[in-house]
Amino acid sequence: MLIRFTVVFIAILAAFSYQGCGGSSGGGGGAPPSTVVLAVVSGDNQTAPEGSTINIVLSVKDQSGADAIGAVIDITATFPNGGSQNLSLTVSGPAPTLVFGLNSGVGTYNISLVATFNGQTSNTLQVTETATAAAVLTALSAVNSTPSGIVGNLISMAVTANDQSGNGIPGQLVRWQITTASGGSTLQDDPTNPTVVARTIDVTTDSTGFATVHMLPMITGQFQIDVAAVSATGTAVSATLSVTVN
User: Fold this and answer.
1) Which residues are within 8 A (CB) of 130 and not within 5 positions of it... i.e. 6 or more apart?
2) Which uninterrupted H or E stretch holds 20?
3) ∠ Cα 142 143 149 (to 5°)
4) Rounded to an integer, what distance in angstroms lies between the CA atom of residue 222 and that of residue 243?
5) What residue numbers bound the domain in which 236 lies?
6) Contact at 8 Å (CB) between 179 and 199?
7) Which neighbouring-strand residues pair with 240?
8) Which of 62, 134, 153, 245 has the fewest Cβ atoms within 10 angstroms?
9) How confident is the model over 60-115, as pLDDT tens digits?
10) Where a domain ends, among 88, 114, 132?
11) Are 52 and 105 in a shared domain?
């Protein structure tokens, strides 16, 4: 029995010693180095007009899946106009966001990202964004260039601010003006709760590029309404409406 016990004890001791050293050649039996993982949460492959600002939401995790707070993301971007830029982003929360401007030409922007955390380097991430030609105001188009109505009743009028492709431009300021003798007639921006009532008013186009006003005629006759807008680059466009009031 003594011999059997000794053999069993030695076998157990040898197994324990092997597990203790972990079979590792790294020395000290420590855990393997953690791996930093960089990923895109949202914002890859966006398309927007040149001059736009886009958001690229990222994720940086260590091997345990925890957010790598304090990691530094090194970013290299190449532009369609042949230029490039290097910048960095420090991770301070769970969803670091790169705010990126498409300001260097129409075409493809290639963005390379790599994170470092506690002396370790992540995978390299490739993100591609595309800039299209910026919308340029080219025309004001009247929905109805010869509206008509009855004295004392509101007459609605609308124009669209169009870009070079015929699409409506949202957020464009449009000026409306009664240029003939008005006899007290006015324009207003809202039919039921106007904020502006005058012979000349400014209205901003809606999300589809439409600008709408309402005229309250106080006398009968023909009225000329001049409509004008100026683009961000200084291009001026106009339209004229002829209103008949009975």
Assistant:
1) 45, 46, 47, 48, 107, 108, 109
2) helix 2-21
3) 100
4) 6
5) 139-245
6) no
7) 226
8) 153
9) 999 899 999 999 999 999 999 999 999 999 999 999 999 999 999 999 999 999 99
10) 132
11) yes
